[in-house]
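Thread: quick sanity check before group meeting

JM: Hey all, I'm pulling together slides for Thursday and realized we never actually wrote out the predicted structure for the chain we discussed last week. Dropping the sequence here so it's in one place. If anyone has concerns about the input, flag it before I start.
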Amino acid sequence: MILIVLLLFILPLEAQHRTILAVGAHAGDMELTAGAVLIHQKKLGDKIVLIHLTLGEGGDPKLSPKDYGDQKRREAIAAAKALGAEVLFGPYKDGELPNDEATRRYVAGVIRQVKPTHIITHWKNGIHKDHRNTSAVVADALLLAELEAVDTGHPI
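JM (edit): ok, ran it. Output follows.
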């Protein structure tokens, strides 16, 4: 909740259009934690891009990871459509999201591709390892995305 309150102060109600990148560890994370802010900003004319680093495919005890991952992907696409957002999917597995250089470069590449004016992600002290790793990765990827010497596969 702290994240959402702070963002309301960061994102003024000016007519200036922004591009907001919401980086979630799992499909559904950003829609649930920051959905109200994303909807509000979309109504103001901002571009919204969601990236789910994992599908969260390990989170259903009754479905196989593949079946649940397929369901989560369909739900994420439908949620993005309802938000009027673009959606991207990362290559990582639920519960195994690494906090390493390769992941930072991957996210830096997404940042270069999307060119966001604002980024929303998880709280650094979240209870889930994937959430903590996402927060740390995004913080470091911001710097990497700005360094011309860093190869991310996307130009600055």
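AS: nice. Residues 65-83 form the longest helix (19 residues). Residues 48 and 85 are 5 Å apart (CA to CA).
JM: adding both to the slides.
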